[in-house]
Amino acid sequence: RIQAFPSREFYDGRLRPASPAVAAQHVSDLPGVATDTLPDHLQERVAFIDPDGTAKQNTNPAEVKAVAETVAAYAAAGVARADIGVIAPFRAQAAAIRRAVPDVTIDTVDRFQGSAKEVIIVSFVATGDLDSPIFEDFRRVNVALTRAKKALVLVGDRDALATDERYARMVEWAR
User: Fold this and answer.
1) What is the CATH number of domain 26-174?
2) Which of 28, 38, 119, 165 sits in a 20 to 30 Å window from 45, CA-based?
3) Which pTM does this prediction carry?
4) Which of 3, 157, 28, 152 is nearest to 86 (CA)?
5) Can you list the alpha helix ranges (DSSP code H) found in 14-84?
6) Contact in structure between 79 and 30 (CB atoms under 8 Å)
7) pLDDT tens digits, residue range 104-155?
């Protein structure tokens, strides 16, 4: 399920997991992780959180808080902080999240390319509409969505993302 949307949207259905075992991986497969302690919305391999915030100067404090709470939930369930990564489209948002969430890899989409983590949280920042250049480059979205091995959490304004057909499909997939 993690690869379903990127495969369909960016690879014409050709992106496939290495094996059925890889496709079935879940955060519960990590040693010492008790997923039954995770909130219901994080029980699935792909989740979407709409914190209903406001973006200002390429940051969204409500998303920062939602990301911090999500990291805390995974850590409380036993996921090592080193196994969690956070991706944001803007350096300002990455810096704000870094201040709120210690000991987790947090970076921009471009700097995260080539890396992967067991759990990836993507903060989209946008509210209102998608007028920023970061959202016009779907290659960056592809990178963000394909860094997760076992769980992917998307944090963003559902209404803003719905102003673009591809992002609207992404939100539906993640819900």
Assistant:
1) 3.40.50.300
2) 165
3) 0.92
4) 152
5) 20-23, 61-76
6) yes
7) 999 998 888 788 999 999 999 877 666 665 666 788 888 899 899 999 999 9
